[in-house]
Amino acid sequence: NAENGVLSFRVKSESTRASKIEISGVKLDLDRAVAQGDIEVEVGGTALVQNADQASGTAFDGGKLAIGHKTFDSFDLTGSSIEVGEFDKNYVAKKAIATVVTPADGNARVGDVVFTVGKTTYTEAGVEQTMDVAPFIEASRTYLPVRYVAKSVGVEGSKILWDEATRQVTIIKDGQVAQLTIGSNILTLNGAKITMDTKAKV
């Protein structure tokens, strides 16, 4: 059951052996109101974490928890106080499943940029520019030269860095740092790792 951003299901039986529950193929429907950064999911629920005074049918009464001769207020996930012996979170794991990248200046737009496979020229807002390498297609994927793509969206030449030792490209713009490594399918954006479906190459 999925409702209001929560995916839930019921565990119907117990087992003496640990089980594995895999959730895959997750798709997110987002709008521009979502803030920049990681989108994280929390894994919780009463099957995984629950304080005794939140469970039904317990001996605790009136929202109070008695330990020895002392009485403590019941645990409130929305409050700031955490009582003795109680869980301090309502989840057991948290993981980023997507990253939102928002332009620093909101509605900024660049002119049309057109790259053509096999040609060492491209047009930016109708003006022809020259490259030292042409885009190409391999294994049903179109490869574009990163330097010229970055320049076409306003990245300064001095902010496009190449490290021969690590074979890594670093692009810096408006506080954003993107990195690609030749031979790797991982794009790093502000420290967050994003998996591409093909590897960067020269």
TrEMBL record:
<dbReference type="Pfam" id="PF07833">
    <property type="entry name" value="Cu_amine_oxidN1"/>
</dbReference>
<protein>
    <recommendedName>
        <fullName>Copper amine oxidase-like N-terminal domain-containing protein</fullName>
    </recommendedName>
</protein>
<dbReference type="InterPro" id="IPR036582">
    <property type="entry name" value="Mao_N_sf"/>
</dbReference>
<dbReference type="InterPro" id="IPR012854">
    <property type="entry name" value="Cu_amine_oxidase-like_N"/>
</dbReference>
<feature type="domain" description="Copper amine oxidase-like N-terminal">
    <location>
        <begin position="126"/>
        <end position="201"/>
    </location>
</feature>
